[in-house]
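A reminder before we start the practical. When you read a complex entry, don't treat the lines as separate problems. The point of joint prediction is that each chain is placed relative to the others, so the output describes one connected object in space. Small molecules and nucleic acid strands, if listed, are placed in the same frame. In the example below there are four entries. Take a minute to note the order of the lines before looking further.
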Amino acid sequence: MDARPRAARPASPLEERVFVGLQRSADLLLQGVERLLKSQGLSPAQYNVLRILRGAGPGGLSCREIGQRMVTRDPDMTRLLDRMEQRGVVTRARQKADRRVVTTRVTSGGLEFLKRLDQPVRDLHRRQLRHMPAARLKTLARLLGEVRAAPE
Amino acid sequence: MDARPRAARPASPLEERVFVGLQRSADLLLQGVERLLKSQGLSPAQYNVLRILRGAGPGGLSCREIGQRMVTRDPDMTRLLDRMEQRGVVTRARQKADRRVVTTRVTSGGLEFLKRLDQPVRDLHRRQLRHMPAARLKTLARLLGEVRAAPE
DNA sequence: TGCCAATAATCGTTATAACGCTTATTCTTG
DNA sequence: CAAGAATAAGCGTTATAACGATTATTGGCA
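Here is the predicted structure of the whole assembly.
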């Protein structure tokens, strides 16, 4: 039995509330970012790859490494990078030592792109979360980390 | 100034940490749900629609209403419902009063589907979050609500 | 009443995501 | 050192997402 319903709808399990809340919140914030990136013809995944490559420096990264660092997994790195190569924001070169791996690097054009986007993206995030005090954001960031710290 | 770098990487802005943490956590949990639903040939969006329609009762809902209640927005309700109608989990009928709107209802087959999935989904969510005590989950759920309570 | 804006849904098209399979190369080990 | 497992990336194909434009219907109002 569900006890007396305090609200119209019976409360869903706590874990489900967290799951749905996560999906909704992530989607809400992503919408804004998508709009911003679309003005430059970039998808969130492409933007993410560019930032990863910038962080990796001139040595570049293999497909696998990029995939591992991405915020959301992408099951087809090859064609994601194909499109980015066509736009001239990355280059690819097969490694001499291990000819299985292809090293991808961000081009100067790609870095320009990122530079133009850095401030607008920061501003957007600040606007999206300006109604929450820093202390709560810190708590939230910590709890989100705990979610992903699941064993196994 | 950034003070002394306590870790190798300089800390990113708090808002960005929250944004990325949200995307990563949402994606991580969604992966599990996708795997589970795929065993029944359902996408998360389709599952979401079924649950919305079950909650709405026998009166059904219009496309717009379904779209508004979805966890993540879907820009093409028509074809999402097309596919579900073909699978026999929903029916559609144009309203007499206002012939612009199409009412969608879940079929008994669709309800069966849901019934079989209810417990596995609950179990999955519990497993995904079992490493976090209830008090933290409550705090997290509350903070996630606050994120979406942004003015305008 | 007749015209126009607003609303609901649909559709044509292109791009991207997703799935599994294949190829190329390297590592392992008997 | 040869055969087979393991690893990295790529590809063929199908399904879905995304974007705009379009149709059908209704409500507002001069």
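Discuss with your neighbour: Residues 14-38 of chain A form the longest helix (25 residues). What might explain this?
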